[in-house]
Specification:
CATH superfamily: P-loop containing nucleotide triphosphate hydrolases
Number of domains: 1
CATH class: Alpha Beta
Radius of gyration: 18 Å
Order of helices and strands: EHEHHHEEHEHEHEHEHH
CATH topology: Rossmann fold
Strand content: 15-25%
Distance between the termini: 16 Å
CATH architecture: 3-Layer(aba) Sandwich
Strand order of the largest sheet: 3-4-2-5-1-6-7-8
Shape: globular
Structural class: alpha/beta
Helix content: 40-55%
């Protein structure tokens, strides 16, 4: 299964990704988590020690030049558009408790959509992960979906948009839906986070347009404490893992219809 998680900054994308990763491993799946958000907090949320030591692929200048034939930052030069990437998940991922992690990083020169060696390598890697890998792949993304394209969108089992009760979150969700439609990524789902009660659930159920709701995660002080103490959100919160597992089951059931 391949899932991409997006949403407005601060809504809890990384928290949901970590909970889904834990739930999938409890089901016995091999999980590869991809941090494609420039803020890069997924490693800490998964319980990696010294997460700052996990180097972003976009900053691996020697690797990029080796695989593409051009130095990073080069625009308009001749370089390989189909670099070898199938060995990178094993070489570049860190692992803890059965969950492997890769950090994509950000293409700083020319914009995320530039035709440059680093962008080419990242896109080739994403295509490999979504099309050829047999693992469960979870992509923690920013509000945009720049790492996805028409050539790979059909292999995403679900683009999950994380929401919190509020108009700005809903506006971001609408923009994400438009971007997804542009690349024919039509399998979307929404998860409501930081839910304080039935009133918040009702608000999202009434106002989320064009994206089916997969479930809700409650507002919990334990998640805030876990973040402050640099602990995974699933530590001591088995109920949250069970909620994530229920979302997985919903996706599986809908795929089987």
């Amino acid at each position: 299964m391949k899932l991409a998680i997006s949403g407005k900054g601060g809504v809890g994308k990384t928290t949901l990704t970590a909970l889904l990763a834990k739930a999938f491993t409890k089901r016995g799946y091999r999980v590869l988590a991809i941090d494609a958000d420039p803020d890069a907090n997924l490693a800490a949320a998964l319980g990696y020690t010294n997460p700052e030591k996990i180097r972003p692929i976009a900053e691996m200048a020697e690797l990029i030049e080796e695989r593409t034939g051009a130095k990073p930052g080069t625009v308009g030069a001749v370089f390989r558009m189909n670099p070898k990437v199938d060995d990178l998940p094993e070489k570049l991922s860190a692992e803890v408790d059965g969950i492997r992690l890769m950090r994509m990083g950000t293409v700083k020169k020319g914009g995320g959509g530039c035709v440059c060696p680093e962008s080419t390598l990242l896109k080739a890697l994403v295509q490999h992960l979504l099309i050829e890998r047999k693992d469960v792949v979870l992509m923690d993304m920013e509000a945009g979906i720049e790492h996805l394209g028409r050539g790979t969108s059909q292999f995403v089992d679900r683009l999950i948009v994380v929401l919190e009760p509020g108009k700005r979150s809903l506006e971001t969700a609408a923009k994400i839906r438009e971007l997804a439609e542009d690349i024919r990524l039509l399998k979307l789902g929404a998860v409501g986070n930081k839910i304080r009660g039935q009133e918040d659930e009702a608000f999202l159920e009434k106002n989320v347009k064009g994206i089916p709701l997969l479930g809700f995660l409650p507002y919990k002080d334990s998640i805030i404490r876990a973040d402050m103490e640099e602990r995974p959100p699933f530590e001591g919160s088995e109920d949250l893992v069970e909620l994530a597992d229920a979302m997985i089951e919903t996706i599986i059931q809908e795929q089987g219809k």
